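Contributing new records

If you add data, match the layout below exactly. Sequence lines come first and carry their own label; structure lines follow with theirs. Keep one chain per record. Anything else will be rejected by the validation script.
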Amino acid sequence: MSIKNSRTKINGEIRYESVRVIGTNGEQLGIMSSREAQLLARENGVDLVEIAGNANPPVVRI
């Protein structure tokens, strides 16, 4: 029996080529690289959080 780690990925733990980004107010910011999304979150003083890692592309929220 395997136990799946359900810990939420944040910031630098998110390493996908591209992600769909949701803004702080729930608005769609579009698809961008993980690096761009991390920089955007940092510029806004918030964390980047994975919402749906199994989606294509994965969904993250600032």
